[in-house]
Structure prediction request, 457 residues.
Amino acid sequence: MSENKTVRFIITRQDTMNSAPYEEEFVLPYRPNMNVISALMEIQRNPVNAKGEKTTPVAWDSNCLEEVCGACSMVVNGKPRQACTALIDKLEQPVRLAPMSTFPVVRDLQIDRERMFDSMKRIKAWIPIDGTYELGPGPRMPERKRQWAYELSKCMTCGVCLEACPNVNSKSDFIGPAFISLVRLFNAHPTGSMNRDERLNALMGDGGLQDCGNSQNCVQACPKGIPLTTSIAAMNRAATVQSFRNFFGSDHQVD
Amino acid sequence: MADNREFFYRRLHSLLGVIPVGLFLTQHLVVNHFATKGEEAFNRAAGVMEGLPFRYLLETFVIFLPLLFHAIYGLYIAFTAKNNIGRFGHFRNVMFFLQRVSGVITLVFIAWHVWETRIQAALGAEVDFQMMADVFSNPLMVGFYIVGVISTVFHFANGLWSFSVSWGLTISPRSQRIMTYVTMVVFVALSVVGVRAILAFV
Prediction:
């Protein structure tokens, strides 16, 4: 019985970065427990579309196949998510695949996520510990705070929150929810907080957290369940205080 | 400040929407509500507002300039969004969309309303109960004003919610949910005040 079962795919394809997108349909034999990635691998092995014509294999990005690397994000049936955890058994057919349009398309489902790595550099998403001499151990982080911060650290820069956000688009410079939450993560770290004003000021620059319009799509879409909107509101409060400190002057830039 | 200009404008936009524009809106609706007590009560209340000292100063700095900034910068904000309620239909995203739609409706309504009342007053017309009663002799205008007032009040009430998030007053999901209830009560209450006043002229 299952030998005759098939799965239909409608894939939005694009041959080069600047060419026009088009749709191509594929019909694959059903296999139990298949996911979108294994389906794409099947197309790669046998690149024949639904009309029986030989075509080019569909290009996509993926890496870990267990939803921790963030590389295989794409729009599956209208929702941005990871292809590796998109199980065919749980998807409505035909399965529609499209690249996340917030990012430049490299080819087919493959996108250029560079802007997110630039954003991480901009907000200084790291903890500076290098010096010209041994600095010794940093301050201890309370265990319960570490557990709380761990939830924020699950961000894998997958870009789903940027795709879901109505304010991240070609008309705006908004960096997106993930990076606001990352500032909260690094500013919560006892050593990281020694540079908290630098991250906050970077976050308050053009295209920063003020561009959030509170649609709260990000927290709904985040595959890791990160409390993004709580982070945004918390950073709004920190930015309010920081802006007063910047304007009036303060003895408390980092404490 | 130089590279934080956008931050400053956005926060100013958020602040001005509540203080003074939101406060003025509330006061305006309350004064209008005197119309439910009859022509004389309304004319007396409106007369008090008209007779306030430093009237032009108050009008300029409490109403016109803040309102103009909020309206023009708000239009820019509204048109930089790429709405996606089709893909994400949950409550807050719908409110995000409605905030932008109601903002544009409100801008059209207020522009018309200012032309019809304050600018006519500057051109020599008498602003009183009779003026509004004449406006509302046209049932289409009654409909337009009811839509306009409800849209304005919604924009204000929902704006209070985003104000409290933007300034970091409500952070936790629970506090934001409670603020949703509070602002929706504000929306219903002010809508009743506003619509009752309109119907009093009909």
The mean pLDDT of chain A is 95. Chain A has two domains: 6-111, 114-248. Chain A touches chain B through 39 residues (CB under 8 Å).
